[in-house]
Amino acid sequence: MLQQFQGKNSLLSSKAGLSGAVESFLKTYFAAHEGGLPTTGLYDRVMQEVERPLLQATLKAVMGNQKKAAEILGINRNTLRKKLTQLDIDLRDL
């Protein structure tokens, strides 16, 4: 399905898509350390930064329906609920 979307949206099919944006950000992020390295935990920080807007956008698209959101995301509804709690995402704010 993502491939279908990519065909309709040149943003995702070009280098300017999500992976391009992340790659560009990470290059800038590492360069800002001027030859040094960032502190440990980079993977978790990046995943949390991506996960929050992903969950919020999906829930907004399905008008807060957690069952549908979980199906679209390919995760269990209980996992979605746990992530919403961990990331302190309030459905009333969507």
Would you write up a description of this structure?
- The chain has 94 residues and is an all-alpha fold.
- The chain folds into 2 domains: 1-38, no CATH class; 40-94, Orthogonal Bundle (Arc Repressor Mutant, subunit A).
- Helix content is 67%, strand content 0%.
- The protein is built from 6 helices and no strands.
- The protein has helices at 2-8, 10-13, 18-31, 42-61, 66-73, 77-86.
- The longest helix is centred in the middle third of the chain and has 20 residues, at 42-61.
- The two termini are 25 Å apart.
- The mean pLDDT is 88.
Outline the secondary-structure elements.
Layout lengths: L1 H7 L1 H4 L4 H14 L10 H20 L4 H8 L3 H10 L8
Strand content: under 5%
Number of strands: 0
- Could you name the CATH class of the largest domain? Mainly Alpha
Number of domains: 2
The helix/strand order is HHHHHH
Largest pleated sheet: none
- Helix count? 6
Distance between the termini: 25 Å
The general outline is: elongated
The structure class reads mainly alpha
- Radius of gyration, in angstroms, nearest whole number: 16 Å
User: What ranges have pLDDT less than 50 throughout 5 or more consecutive residues?
Assistant: none
Q: Which CATH-level-2 architecture of the largest domain?
A: Orthogonal Bundle
Which percent range fits the helix content? 55-70%
Average pLDDT score: 88
